[in-house]
Design a protein that fits this description.
Length: about 120
């Protein structure tokens, strides 16, 4: 059952969502990082980046989550800015926490580097 907050989600919130797999028609409930601005809300959408276990094979763009308690994560994790999904806010199961500013800036740098925008 979804427990949707009446408060809008903000950039750098860690949320639990059914995140789609890139290689098959399935999804897995997992933590993700909201990376969209509040301006996207008018379209009824959120952009989220995958959060995965730090034990997985690393990608160059992985950003370690330094403050697990603040993020609401139970184990060492990384944000994977190369894996993004667009979801409706109603798909968010719950808010877990948020990133601390230094980690958020590192994710923002990778998002800028990986995007086509100048």
């Amino acid at each position: 059952m979804h427990t949707v907050s009446s408060e809008p989600y903000r950039a750098w919130d860690v949320v639990i969502v059914p995140f789609p797999y890139a290689d098959r028609l399935a999804e897995k409930r997992r933590p993700a990082l909201v990376v969209s601005s509040r301006q996207l809300e008018r379209y009824g959408l959120l952009w989220v980046a995958m959060i995965t276990s730090a034990a997985n094979a690393p990608w160059e763009c992985d950003v370690p989550v330094r403050n697990l308690e603040r993020a609401g994560l139970p184990a060492p994790s990384v944000v994977r800015p190369a894996k993004l999904a667009t979801i409706e806010p109603a798909r968010v199961v719950r808010r877990a926490g948020s990133l601390e500013p230094k980690t958020a800036r590192a994710v923002a740098r990778w998002l800028a580097e990986l995007s086509a925008a100048p």
